[in-house]
Amino acid sequence: MLNRFLQNTRKPKGFLGRFMLRGMNKGHAALSQWAVSYLPLKKEARILDVGCGGGANVAALLTKVPEGGVDGLDYSAESVAWSRKVNAKNLGPRCTITQGDVAHLPYSDHSLDVVTAFETIYFWPDLTAAFREIQRVLKPGGTFFICCESQDSTDTTWTDRIQGMTVYRGDDLKERLEALGFHNVSQHHHPKGWFALTATR
Ligand SMILES: C[S@@+](CC[C@H](N)C(=O)[O-])C[C@H]1O[C@@H](n2cnc3c(N)ncnc32)[C@H](O)[C@@H]1O
């Protein structure tokens, strides 16, 4: 039963999925707040939050870009519905929530200032291809931001239980990003093992 519930971290679905989304919005708040402190944002920035889950990060980021906007994208219909509910009052030109896959972002080349990925890269089946797609939609000088609860690839607590989950070391992420041409890759580590990374396109 617990293992069945945990699969909803990868793609929330149905009643258990909604329960998970509510839990992640609360449970990830401290992690996200810490990580976002390393994300420089201009008040007019246009942001895409990939793997937006329950939409709490979209809501928090919206408060930081009063003259810009924050879109959310997630491949789970349940996540999209929950995110839309959480961000209902802001939906419109400043905020859209779309169902889609990181492999094919519905954005034109060089159209975004910032792409964020909170607690989601673990589940992307082709990480380098996803990074390339994010690079395509970012403006030159734009920022890619990653936040993960863990970057210890030797700890199998969650990967043993959640299908299709991979934990990446920060240095592995840095190498992949630099190989694609991202620069200024900077990593931040919290005593609890939390991890944040920013990279410039
Ligand atoms: C652990 S949840 C994190 C949700 C939210 N970002 C947070 O921090 O609370 C991972 C989310 O990533 C989404 N996701 C996983 N793979 C994805 C992909 N290939 N494209 C888009 N979304 C994806 C899942 O549906 C899920 O909502």
Protein model, in words:
It is a single chain. By secondary structure, the protein is of the alpha/beta class. Strand 2, helix 5 and strand 3 form a beta-alpha-beta unit. The longest helix is centred in the N-terminal third of the chain and has 14 residues, at 14-27. The protein has seven helices and seven strands, in the order αααβαβαββαβαββ. The chain has one domain (2-200): Rossmann fold (3-Layer(aba) Sandwich). It has a seven-stranded mixed sheet with strand order 3-2-1-4-5-7-6, sandwiched between helices.
Radius of gyration from CA coordinates: 16 Å
| Number of DSSP helical runs | 7
Q: Order of strands across the biggest sheet? A: 3-2-1-4-5-7-6
Strand content: 15-25%
Number of extended strands: 7
* CATH class group: Alpha Beta
> What is the overall shape?
globular
Rounded average pLDDT: 96
Give a list of the ligands.
Answer: S-adenosylmethionine
Q: Uncertain regions: pLDDT < 50 for 5+ in a row?
A: none
Q: Distance between termini?
A: 42 Å
Helix amount: 25-40%
Largest sheet report: 7 strands, mixed
| CATH-level-2 architecture | 3-Layer(aba) Sandwich
CATH topology: Rossmann fold
Return the structural class.
Answer: alpha/beta
Task: Output the CATH homologous superfamily.
Answer: Vaccinia Virus protein VP39
Which sequence of SSEs, written as H and E, runs from N to C? HHHEHEHEEHEHEE
Count of separate structural domains: 1
